[in-house]
Amino acid sequence: MDNAYSQVRTRARPALGRDEPRRAAVPSDAELVTASARDPEAFTELFARHWDSLYRFCQKRAGSAGEDIAAEAFRVAFDRRKRYDARYTDARPWLFGIATNLLRDHFRSARSEERKLGLSAALDGPSRGDADPDGLERQELGPDLASALDGIPAADRDALLLLAWADFDYEQIAAALDIPVGTVRSRIHRARQRVRAYLDTSDDHRARTKEG
Question: What CATH fold (topology level) applies to the domain 1-6+27-107?
Fold first, then answer.
């Protein structure tokens, strides 16, 4: 790992109880990223601002691997900081977009490894926790929503979870995934339709079971 990035990450967490001096103006994320191209220490504050939220998002999706994925997202961002578009004052879509791509790679590799090992998805279900690439997502979503999202294209799932777990609006999701806002709307609409259809079917099934 880049020594400069390692130092930034180590120094990013301020000591508890330390009185911070009052600042005349708080720099935007874009200003911090731009400044970090000249002075890597400026990246420290960006890390401190967004580590917790990015870590929680990655941990929800990937369990114990989430911390490493979040850290790698910041490392990649640090390496790419000179290419950041300073017109975007909020760096969260940029950071979460990097993390989402890393999560896709993580799940793809995990499923490939499962196939190599000959594991059966039917027998090795969500109760195995982190051994199931989607296990943590299933726990966070609950059994009904998790089942509803089974089979949804990864791109639609990414958009929906950025909305639900990162609390992004459509414009932020579009920036994170580098797609038009109209595409975001279509992906989330499809995902929501799938969820509604599944839940309606499940409710009907439970109602018939009780009647029987």
Answer: Rna Polymerase Sigma Factor; Chain: A (1.10.1740)
